[in-house]
Amino acid sequence: MPKTLADIKKSLDGHLGKRLHLKANGGRKKTIEREGILRETYRAVFVVDLDQEENAFERVSYSYTDILTEAVEITIFDESGNSAFVVK
């Protein structure tokens, strides 16, 4: 598990363009689960392009702090569709 925001960003930088499953805390005991492609990483946030058939909007962004505080958990898939890397 990455310990700093820089470690989280570095680990996500290595997986740009890959499919992922995102599990986020939606508040009030709700969990939001989405799938998409890790599109871009910036200094403080990362952007995920969502699958259009499952979601009403095109993309979401989360901060690296969301991962550090365990409000967001990401599972990145390899080319064969198997779970390859988990960031939580």
Automatic annotation (TrEMBL):
It comes from Chungangia koreensis. It holds the Pfam family VEG. NCBIfam families: BflmStimVeg. InterPro entries: Protein_Veg. PANTHER family: PROTEIN VEG (PTHR40026). Gene3D superfamilies: 2.30.30.100. This is Biofilm formation stimulator Veg. It comes from the Bacteria.
